[in-house]
Amino acid sequence: MCIVTFDWERNDAVEKVKSFSRNNSLSFVVLELTEACNFNCMWCYAAANRGGSSRHMPWEKAERLIKILADSGIKQVTCSGGEPLMYPHLERFVRSATEHGLIVHLNTNGYFLTKERARELKKAGMTQVQTNIDSLNPDEHNRVRGNSESFERAVAALKNARDAGMTAVSQTVLTKKNEKDVVDIFRFARSIGVQRCRVWDMVPSGTAIENIELRPTSFIGTLKELCSFAEETGAISVESADPLFPANHRPGIDVYGGICAASMGGFTTISVQGDVFFCATLRKTLYNAFEVAESNGNSIRDIHAEKVRKFVGQLHVPDECRECEHFKLCHGGCPTRRAFSPDGRDYWCIRPRPAKISGPCAMST
Ligand SMILES: C[S@@+](CC[C@H](N)C(=O)[O-])C[C@H]1O[C@@H](n2cnc3c(N)ncnc32)[C@H](O)[C@@H]1O
User: Fold this and answer.
1) What is the pLDDT of residues 217-268, one digit of tens each?
2) Would 118 disulfide with which of 65, 125, 160, 169, CB 3.0-4.6 Å?
3) DSSP 3-state assignment of 336?
4) How many whole angstroms from 308 Cα to the centroid of ligand 1?
5) How many angstroms is it from 105 CA to the middle of ligand 1?
6) In the CATH scheme, what architecture does the domain 4-338 have?
C-alpha cells in the first residue's frame, strides 16, 4: 500500500512507523472483516459490490484471528473490508483486539459513523478512523464513490471521529481528476479538524483496472507539492509507504519510511477467509493464517517472513533497476505498479530511461 501520510499532531502511528523502520517483521495488518459494502467505488482494489459476494468473518474466526495476531507480535490491526461498519461484530472485535494489546484503527467510507457509533467505538478501544475525501465538489466525490450522500457523510464521519477523541484521517485516492486539487482537499480536511491527511495514487487493482485511464499524471510531483504545503502549515512529519518517495527529493520536513512495507514483510492484508495476501492491491494469496497458525504454535510471524521472501524473490525486476544506484532504497518500486508498466519498471520512477536502441537500418540511413 503505497500510502503517504502527513501528520500535524502526534499520534500512535508515528511511533509505529518509526519502530517498523527498525524492525522488519510483521507489525501491522489490514483485516477485511467483511466483503459487504454499500458503496461502489470506481477504483476499489477489493472490487467490493462487484462479485456478488458479501460474506462476513464469523465471530469465532475473528476471535481466533485476534489471538493469532497477538501471538505473532503484531502491533496494529486496521479494520477494513468491504465496509467494516457493516460488520455485525465490529465493537466486540475492537474490544477484544484492544484487550489483546493491539492498536485498532478503522478504514471506513463513513456513511454509518454517527456521533453515537463513534463514541461506542472509542469506548471499545478504537484510536483512529480514516475516511476518503476525493473531491471538494460533492457531486464528483459522490460519483467516484457510487453513493449520492457520500460526501456529506464522510465530512460528518471525520468530525464525529475527532469529537469522540479518535485521530481523524482523510485519505484521497489520487487520479488525474483530483491531483491538481489535493492541496485544497488537505486544507479543507485540516479546517474540519482532521489531524492526518493521506494520499494514495490510484493503483491498478480490482475495479481500478477497468478505469486505468484515471491514473494520476504526476504522483511524485504531487507529493512534492504536498510536502511544501505540510511545511508551510506546521506539519510534524511525513510517513511514506511508497518505495519511490522521497528517494529523489529532500523535503524540509522529517520523512519516515520510503519503503514498500509489504515487500519488507512488515505489513499485510488478510481476507474474510483468513487468506494472507502479499498486499491489498497485489492480492496474491501467500498462505492461510488459520492453517499456518494451527501448525506453528499459533504464530504466523516466521512463516510470513519466509513466504514474503520467496514471493518477492520470484517477482520480475528489470536488470536496469537492479543496476541502478537507487535499487537499495526502492527495491524496484511497487510490485503492483510494475505489473502494469510496459517496460517492467515502476511507472512512477523518475530515473532516466536508457536511450532507445535503433535497429541497424535506422543506423545506416
Ligand atoms: C477498499 S476500501 C475498504 C474500507 C472502506 N469501505 C472505505 O471506503 O474506506 C479501503 C480504501 O483503500 C483505498 N483504495 C481502494 N482501492 C484503491 C486503489 N485501487 N488505489 C488506491 N487506493 C485505493 C481507498 O481509500 C479506500 O477507501
Assistant:
1) 999 999 999 999 999 999 999 999 999 998 878 889 989 888 899 999 999 9
2) 160
3) helix
4) 23
5) 14
6) Alpha-Beta Barrel (3.20)
